[in-house]
Amino acid sequence: MNDTSTCSPRTASPVPPGSLRETMRRFATGVAVVATTDRGSTYAAVVNSFTSVSLEPPLVLVCLQVGSRTCEALQRRGAFSICVLADEHREHSQRLARSQPTSDDDAFEVVDGLPTIRGTLAGLLCEVESVQVKGDHVIVVGCVVRTHHAQREPLVFYDGQYRMLDGQAAPDSGAVTATK
Predict the structure, then answer these.
(1) What CATH number has the domain bearing residue 48?
(2) Which of 41, 73, 118, 127 has the highest local Cβ count within 10 Å?
(3) Which candidate, 152, 143, 127, places its Cα nearest to that of 58?
(4) Number of domains in the chain
(5) By the 8 A CB rule, do 124 and 78 touch?
(6) Residues 78 and 113: beta-carbon distance below 8 Å
(7) Is the residue at 171 inside a domain?
(8) What are the DSSP E strand ranges found in the chain?
(9) Does 4 fall in a domain?
(10) Cβ–Cβ < 8 Å for 50, 64
């Protein structure tokens, strides 16, 4: 898919990439790994652009860099896993951010034919629903076919660094539920 969208604001020039990057660093996110297999190899990418799109049907989206090996393998395979990392996966996240997993990487296990990371906070197995190129990233929407979750401390990324939560809910935080 070769959608070469451009950003054409009506009233101002687009902000420079460095300014947008610095601004987006102020948004705390979880850390996830998108993984797939293709032609006998495992491909994985660390992402923090991952979100739920719809509960019915169950859809999520991830954004991957255009031309990345993981993105290309995911599109060929048509299926992928998303592993939401726990704080104990910090070193694994740092390693995967630098290089692809090797065949002897014991952090991965195969579930329903897809690579997943052991002991994650949450995991989703997805089939590719749609792919769209926007700027320097590819938006991949996946139909969720299987999930799991556990009670662990999340790995959090803020201002270019991994952070820890203290495990305590904010006073008067209450549960937030959507209204119809």
Answers:
(1) 2.30.110.10
(2) 73
(3) 143
(4) 1
(5) no
(6) no
(7) no
(8) 29-30, 32-38, 41-47, 50-54, 59-65, 79-84, 108-111, 114-117, 122-134, 137-149, 156-158, 161-163
(9) no
(10) no
Q: What is the pLDDT of residues 127-174, one digit of tens each?
A: 999 999 998 899 999 999 999 999 998 999 988 888 877 766 667 656
Using the Cα atoms of residue 141, residue 142, residue 144 and residue 147 in order, give the sign of their dihedral: negative
Q: How far is CA 180 from the centre of its chain?
A: 28
Q: Which two tokens stand for residue 124?
A: 């989703």
Instruction: Indicate whether 12 pLDDT > 80.
Output: no
Please report whether residue 12 resides in a domain: no
- Comparing 5-14, 51-60, 92-101, which segment has the lowest mean pLDDT? 5-14
CB 128 within 8 A of CB 140: yes
Name the residue range of residue 92's domain.
Answer: 28-163
Tokens for 58, please give them.
């169950």
Chain centroid to CA 30 = 9
Which pTM was predicted? 0.83
pLDDT at 64 over 90: yes
Lowest mean pLDDT among 50-64, 119-133, 154-168: 154-168
